[in-house]
Each structure stands twice: as structure tokens, then as C-alpha cells.
Design brief:
mainly alpha, 75% helix, 0% strand, ARM-like, HEAT domain containing protein
């Protein structure tokens, strides 16, 4: 048996172990073992784990799918669970962690429209960390403007955890556009200033203030050392 066949057999055995797990602990262990081999063949099984009522196994599956990266995205898009909000939340975390621009529409809609706060939270965070370099300049600028408009809405969400994630997303967006669309930073910092004075949750006011400081630091560094 050659090495490739041996590897395939190993992955199949690990997938079988996930499917045959008969307790929460054995499922977690089986998923962790499957994640370790980093095989694209594991994608369908890891995606299925997202729908199980086992947070530990789901976290391990999310980490494994993010590590597999781009090949996960089309499969996960085509197998989104529309009825299980827990699975959608985990899937949204995967999209956020991978950052593929092809998931932008999903994240934009989820951030403002999903009834689950965990989905909206993951989407808001993910919108800030899209891998913008994979888009050409013109569509990138347009998409960044759309993300800004969406996050400015999400920062008014009724759930504080979602608003917090939107602040994190806005800071990441500001860092991404500081050299190409500085006018967007002005809108972001204006919103942070508003939050610092009007947001009822102290933790969000503090996070907005921290974001302001970090953006200001980046701006001054860019200005002083433009070639570095």
C-alpha cells in the first residue's frame, strides 16, 4: 500500500470514528483527531458536526475548517443549514475566519437580518476581516463602502454583543482602508466618538475608545513613516 492510499484510509477511519461516536467526549476526541490530518476529504464531516448539539466538537470543527481555508467555502455555502441557527452561527464563524470575499453577501445579510444574535455577532466581526487583497481595486473599494454602511447599522443592534462585534469590525475595516479610502475612516471615527458619549454599555464605550486610539496610532505611524 502506497503512502497516498494509507493516508486516504486513515482519513476514512477518522471520519468513521466521528460518525460512530456515542458520547459528547468521544465525539470531541474524534473530531479533534480528524482535524489534525488537515484533509479536504474531512470537509463534509466537519460541516455536519456544526449542526450537532455539542459546542466543544463544533469549536474544534470550526478551527479545522478555518485551517483548511478556501476549499471549505463553496461546500459550506452550498450546505448552509437554514433551519438550525446554531449551525448557521458556527458556519458564519468559519466564513469570518477564512475571510473569502465570496462570502461577503452572506455576511452582509446575516449581520443585519438573521434573527440569531450569535449569527449577527459572527457576521459583524467577519465583515471587518475580509481578505481584501483578493479583490481588484474598484470592486474592493465598493465592497468596503457597503461593509461600512452595514456595520454602521449593526452598531445600533439591540444586543450588546452584536454591537461590540460591530465595533471590532469597524476598527478592522478602518485599518484596511487607511491608505486607499481615508474618507471612510472619518465616518468610522465619528461613529466611535458618538458611541463613547452615548452608548449605554460601558464595555462598548471602552472598546470604541480603544479602537479610536489604535486607529490614531496607525494614522500617525503611516504619516511619519510613509515608506515603511
Amino acid at each position: 500500500m502506497n503512502h497516498q492510499s494509507s493516508t486516504i484510509n486513515q482519513v476514512q477511519q477518522l471520519i468513521a470514528a466521528v460518525n460512530q461516536a456515542d458520547s459528547a467526549d468521544s465525539l470531541l476526541s474524534a473530531v479533534e483527531n480528524l482535524v489534525e490530518v488537515r484533509s479536504p476529504e474531512a470537509i463534509p464531516t466537519l460541516v455536519e458536526v456544526l449542526s450537532y448539539n455539542n459546542p466543544g466538537a463544533a469549536v474544534a470543527a470550526v478551527e479545522g475548517l478555518i485551517a483548511l481555508g478556501e476549499p471549505v467555502v463553496p461546500y459550506l455555502i452550498n450546505n448552509l443549514d437554514e433551519y438550525n441557527y446554531g449551525a448557521r452561527a458556527w458556519a458564519t464563524r468559519v466564513f469570518a475566519g477564512i475571510g473569502e470575499p465570496s462570502t461577503l453577501d452572506i455576511l452582509l445579510k446575516a449581520a443585519v437580518g438573521d434573527f440569531s444574535q450569535s449569527v449577527r455577532r459572527a457576521a459583524a466581526r467577519g465583515l471587518g476581516i475580509i481578505r481584501w487583497s483578493k479583490l481588484a481595486p474598484e470592486p474592493r473599494m465598493s465592497a468596503q463602502q457597503e461593509v461600512l454602511s452595514t456595520l454602521l447599522l449593526v452598531v445600533q443592534d439591540g444586543e450588546w454583543v452584536v454591537r461590540y462585534a460591530a465595533v471590532v469590525g469597524l476598527q478592522a475595516l478602518a485599518e484596511a482602508v487607511r491608505e486607499t479610502q481615508p474618507q471612510l475612516i472619518e465616518k468610522i471615527t465619528a461613529k466611535f466618538q458618538e458611541l463613547i458619549t452615548t452608548e449605554p454599555e460601558p464595555v462598548i464605550r471602552a472598546r470604541a475608545q480603544l479602537a479610536q486610539i489604535r486607529i490614531s496610532t496607525l494614522a500617525s505611524t503611516t504619516h511619519r513613516f510613509p515608506n515603511e
